[in-house]
Amino acid sequence: MGMTMSQKILAAHAGLKEVKAGQLIEAKLDLVLGNDITSPVAVNEFERCGAHQVFDNKKIALVMDHFTPNKDIKAAEQCKKVRAFANQYDIENFFDVGDMGIEHALLPEKGLVGPGDLVIGADSHTCTYGALGAFSTGMGSTDMAAGMATGKTWFKVPSAIQVTLTGKFQKHVSGKDVILHLIGMIGVDGALYQSIEFTGDGVKSLSMDDRLCIANMAIEAGAKNGIFPVDDVTCAYCEGRVQHPMTAYEADPDAEYTAKYTIDLSTLRPTVAFPHLPENTRTIDEVGEVKIDQAVIGSCTNGRMEDLRAAAAILKGRKVAKNVRCIVIPGTQNIYLQAMHEGLIEDFIKAGAVVSTPTCGPCLGGHMGILAAGERAVATTNRNFVGRMGHVDSEVYLSNPEVAAASAVTGTITDPAKLD
User: Fold this and answer.
1) pLDDT at res. 1
2) How many other CB atoms are there within 10 angstroms of residue 317's CB atom?
3) From edge to edge, which strands make up the β-sheet containing 259-264?
């Protein structure tokens, strides 16, 4: 039996000719990632185990993005600890205020991840980099510490689900709707500890921003990772960015999948996930009257240039509804700068939105947009669990950027087509 794309990457990094689902392996890592919440714990474990050096100071990325600029004393102390560690071990890829971004938007932009790489991160949305044809997955801070010290970690080789994409998007539909639709189909545990491998003619119509969004939320279906084939879109994105050797892997024709699904992109509608799980999806036609207090456009899922352009196209020349707070968060400093050059920042501010420095901020209920009891937000973020964005009696509705922007204008969750 042949191997899936993910299994081939794991086999190569384990120095094995082949691997099978369920097999335990030890594999060499191309990158180890941590942020300002998970890295301090990893640093403590690194020191506790007696490690005195990192395996490669160029293959560790520490991104201060969750509570930065620091929201309180505890956040400041966490960043201080990581900053000291980065200085002590001369970590080349340490990103702090002024030179940072939301980690899963920043690392692809910086070219730190490429096709065929094996990446772990102490953050569950590390699966984002599968958009580039890498095997990337989230792990705990202890695993991160071991990875920083040894450059290796263990894996149980996952089985896989194949998702075949056909067709092209209609207007107002994007990658966010693909992944919400899929999670609505299979549930939040529908791909538990499996790879979701995307294929089909529809893939070539997806931009890299679409793919990064889709791979990012593979974890919301319980997946170990999500991964896309390496094609012309991938190569064009990586050209001039990725400086290390890259390898494009393809699944064998006889690779085994536990399930196969087909999604016709042309049939998708803007999709909204209702509280309190990403699987509680409805198309925009089924939403009904849902009043909102806040709209958040950004995050590691939808804070990229295409997202900001789509939202700005809705907001330009319009005003955010009375009693609605609209928060726009560019994914990185470069995205912020590009949005400024294109006039998008001016469009947002004139519409009555606030534009934040890159940060995870409200996505995890950290800062920059916390909800009070009884409040509702429509957000382009990736999770809508109980209390995710604030009070346990608040609600978060997940959507694409155009739905979020249109909803900010009307004050209720709205089909952007109604504003055309």
Assistant:
1) 78
2) 9
3) 225-227, 194-199, 159-166, 259-264
